Amino acid sequence: MTTPLTLPDPKPVVFERSPLSLAVCQMRFEHLGAISEELTSSLRERLAERYPLAQRLQNAEIALGPTGAQAAAVEGRRFASVEGDWTCSLLPDWASLETTAYSNWGEFETRLREVLVALQEVVSPRVETRLGLRYVNELALESIERPSDWSRYLHPVLVDDLAADLPFEASLATRQSILQLDAGDGAQLNFRHGIAGEAAAPAQALAYILDFDCFRQNQRLFDPETLLATADRFNTIITSMFQWCLTDTLWEELKPHAK
Asked: What domain range is 31 assigned to?
């Protein structure tokens, strides 16, 4: 048996140099079947003020039949802000809110509430099957010249092996680790971290990724208020874990100030 993760409450700060590059909240629900043009138009009307751009969205769905597994294309919609940095997506069994311009939880929560209420009013899902909140942070500092330099900035538990005198440090293309943590109340936190590596842009090869995905998977009635309360709890867990990762040196580099 695991013990649920226990961390101090996060400090109420925002970082001027926030490394958060992507924030996503996804809700899965019972399969609603093909989404009609009438429902799509109604949803678009409700979301148009913030997300005026609409486009068709296709996703592959695997179905098991007498002849084995077959992939079928399912269609949905994506609604986006003019700048393209906020998007809301809908397919027959899931919806999401995503941004590359995250500023604070208050704004994200407000937008999430709007999306959830619109979903409830227009497409009326009845059963939630999964809720997940994911934050991807990309730490990039000019002072980092080799992987072991991260030992000054991140918790020793994360980077002790990088601080060692590795004979192959110059050949290290990437280094990723995954922690799966019990987040309590049936939730789980998957925490992936490590050097971005050569798959990233050349200037970002030595960036350090802190990727948090907190989620729960169980069936319950689809209720916007319950979903919002759970997402808020996930935000607190992820924020606490993120702050735990930072040394005092990196804390100051990111330039925190009170909310």
From this structure: 13-258
Q: Is residue 6 part of a domain?
A: no
Flag whether 71 is in a domain: yes
The answer to whether residue 7 sits within a structural domain is no
pLDDT confidence tier of residue 205, bands split at 50, 70 and 90? confident
Kindly report, residue by residue over 7-23, the tens digit of the pLDDT: 999 999 999 999 999 99
DSSP the chain: -PPPP--PPPPSEEETT--EEEEEEEEEES---SPPHHHHHHHHHHHTTT--EEEEEEEEEEEEETTEEEEEEEEEEEEE-TTSSEEEEEETTEEEEEES----HHHHHHHHHHHHHHHHHHT---EEEEEEEEEEEEE--TT--SGGGGGGTB-HHHHHHHHS--TTGGG---EEEEEEEEEETTEEEEEEEEE--TTS-GGGTT-EEEEEEEEE---EE--HHHHHHHHHHHHHHHHHHHHHHB-HHHHHHT-EEE-
Q: Classify residue 44: in a domain, yes or no.
A: yes
What is the per-residue pLDDT across 81-101, written as a single tens digit (0 to 9) for each?
Answer: 999 999 999 999 999 999 999
Number of domains in the chain: 1
The answer to pTM > 0.70 is yes
In this structure, of 33-37, 115-119, 198-202, the range with the lowest mean pLDDT score is 198-202
